[in-house]
Batch of 2 targets.
Target 1
Amino acid sequence: MKDDTLLVTEGRDPESHSGSVNPPVYHASTILFPSLAAQDAAEKNRYETIYYSRHGTPTTFALQDAVAKIEGGAKGQVAPSGVAAIATALTAFLQQGEHVLVPDNAYGPTRAFCDKSLSRMGVEVTYYDPLVGADIAGLIRDNTKVVFTESPGSLTFEVQDIPAIAEAAHAHGAVLIHDNTWASPLLFKSFEHGVDVSVHSATKYILGHSDAMLGVTVTTADAYLPLKRNTALFGQCAGPDDVFLALRGLRTLSVRMARHQENATVVARWLQSRPEVDRVLYPALEDDPGHTLWKRDFRGASGLFGVVLARPFERPALAAMLDNMTLFGMGFSWGGFESLMTLSDLSHERTTTRWDAPGPLLRLHIGLEDTDDLIADLEAGFARLTAAG
Ligand SMILES: *Cc1c(COP(=O)(O)O)cnc(C)c1O
């Protein structure tokens, strides 16, 4: 079946839930067994059945199955946040003395985990140019066990050649872990492109309403057990209400993503026409450097992009714009129904690639508001920016 149908039908079983269309919230810790034999059987199969709620409840299994099916992977696993999903995936496949390759534009907290936690475990981290493509083969060492990717990358939105990187990783027996948060399981089908483990901040588009934190990891059949075991070892699980919200958000993912892309494209094109703007970093635009790869591998774009300003505006001028926006909120995260704008700080985040820009970098999340209103808000913001600086 097609994606729109899967989003509506997967992870549902009304007959097991008194007819409820969406699986209800199971609040549980202890699961009672009718007999010793039943307990023994459940324990043997504890990752696949309802055994102890830390390992999953009917609500959790429903979400995991649905996300895995939509992305085209074998199995799903919830985590308490996107960062928890990333940390658990990395430590599932890395041990002391081993080596991991991470793109230089990775999400800041991913980088912090590599620098502060993986390094303490004795894992060596190399940051690579996200545009390296097949040449990543030259960076892979005998002890490289994981290649990490994120595309488009955080803040600067470079699109990676995931199939080429996957081929090189697999030729050396390394696992490819991919942060697929920007595209969601709908718009980049990780498992068609050689990914072994796909991590999502479900906080973003899967939940879609800026009201809970959650991570989801999707794996191939081979990668599932190491990931599941590590999740269990770290004692990770997610609250049932948040899992339910993700399952509910999933039902409208397709209509929301289509509108996010439509609105983002209108706003991005308008921004391209503005003298205050040097360039817009959005792979869905024809003149974006990542457009060809995006078009080859993605089924759509989300509503998140970067905007490089045309000259070095000072902080008070930026504050005059950002502090007084009507519709664009200023805050972290994204993927909800509402528009957001933040000032991106790249100063501590790059080591192997250079970032050249004539002015500051903004990150915009384009929500589901009317684009005329969003553009009017931005236009007034630019007037304040140029008046102040
Ligand atoms: C937000 C984000 C995360 C982390 O997700 P949380 O749910 O906030 O922990 C990971 N990767 C990317 C690309 C993100 O944007």
Target 2
Amino acid sequence: MLPLIKTNIPAKSQLMPKLEEVLYSGYVAQGDVVEEFERKFENYIGGGNTLSLNSGTAALHIALILAGVKQGDEVISTALTAEPTNVAIKMVGAKVRWADVDLSTGNISPESIEKAINSNTKAIIVVDYAGIPVNVSKIQEISKKYNIPVIEDAAHALGAKFRGKRTGNHFPFTIYSFQAIKHLTTIDGGALQILDNNLYNKGKIIRWFGLDKNISRLENDIQIQGYKYHMNNVNAAIGIVQLENIESIVQKYIENGKYLDENLKGIDGVELIEYYPDTEPSYWLYTLKVKNRDAFVKMMAENGIMASELHKRNDLHTYLNDFPADLPNLDNFYQNMVHIPCGWWVTKEDCDKMIELMKKGW
Ligand SMILES: *Cc1c(COP(=O)(O)O)cnc(C)c1O
């Protein structure tokens, strides 16, 4: 079965020398290797400051704290995402206010965000779902107009671009996940990309119990709630080796995605996703809309290809559904949406096979 997701670990010969060096160095906690990973990740993103963490969820949590979201506040978010996006909102005691999606992309709708804003709104979380960048320019305008910070959940969208610049450069906070199945894995891990230098320094303190690592333990004075969210040297060593290959790995997703975009045009029962102007997806999954989805998924499975909607609508989780809302575009999009594989393990022959199968119908 051609899987929808797959873990990418560099070849032994490439990974082991660095990993063994760090494992037996006597220093496996957060140290110089973490620092090295952060500076290299910043370099890949092309701007901002990288706060490395032990998960993408930790990155969301710290972003919400730095955005000033507190108990009882509201955060506008999308229901079409992985659960951590919205579970994190509850971690600061805030409530989730749903915005609907755009029908042609599945990403959060700027118009719907604007309608959901009220005096309790303290942040907006947007998700580049399946690697498709959100409507960056419209969302930036709304953020400015209402003075509400935006957190971009780019867990699916490492390497995706807007106006030629990678995710991580467009909003005050962008989160990445380095969990097993993402574009880049450190086994587990995450990063919060922060544009403001002062907030970056505050983020460093929050990730380590509220302690300032630049001051000796005895002279430290904890003044804010902190957590144990740091990355360690072992995960960072894996991250550094992964970064050596990241351009070509992400490029494989993009090449497959573009090839499918070109060759799935005009097929009966298939509707392709549209991309916003000036954006370049990094196609973590290939997303499309199909008629008779159940029959489609079955036909693909019978031919050895995994197709799935993968995520459950988050508004169907009782705990996350603080303000039940009518989401007609999401109802429509979710009914026909499906993902097919397009990652680094998918060959051109695999793509051709999927295209032929879809042309034959289901
Ligand atoms: C994976 C993921 C996260 C959380 O990442 P973890 O590293 O698993 O905590 C957050 N948001 C989305 C959209 C994700 O897919």
